[in-house]
Amino acid sequence: MTFEQRREAALRLLDEAGVEPWSSRPRLWRLLWRLGAKIPPPLFMSAWARALFSALTFAIIWGTLMWILIWRAQKISPLAALASAVFVGFFVGGMSAALAARKRRKLSLPQWGQLR
Asked: What pLDDT shows up at residue 116?
């Protein structure tokens, strides 16, 4: 089974379970899929992959915005800003992974590798 076939099977399961499109096909995922990235839908990612992906994307976006809008004017050191962004990013990533795992259990979704 190709990645695209597995992704479509996963998306069909999510649609049948009543998962909203903004949750099953977030904009970032659709963009990455168009660019050729082979990442599963959010609810089918492993907990570690989901935590790391969410942590990195949140830390980069939030840290950049905080630097531009607040930290630079407050003369926060770049190292302290980076440490803050990474810390908050990993907290958000962990929470994102936990919520996704809870929702996956609630919907009785199979693992990504078990899709046929």
From this structure: 77
Nearest to 100 by CA among 7, 16, 14: 14
User: With a threshold of 0.85, does the pTM exceed it?
Assistant: no
> Is 79 buried (19+), middle (13-18) or exposed (0-12) by CB count in 10 A?
exposed
**Cβ neighbours around 101 below 10 Å, total:** 16
CB atoms within 10 A of CB 48: 10
* 18 Rama sector, left if φ>0, alpha if ψ -120 to 50, beta otherwise: left
Q: Which residue has the tokens 């379970």?
A: 17
Close Cβ partners of 84 (under 8 Å, ≥ 6 residues apart): 63, 66, 76
Cα–Cα distance measured from residue 73 to residue 16, given in angstroms and rounded to the nearest whole number: 49
CB environment 24-34: b (16+ within 10 A), e (fewer) = bbeeebeeebe
Q: What is the pLDDT of residues 80-89, one digit of tens each?
A: 999 999 999 9
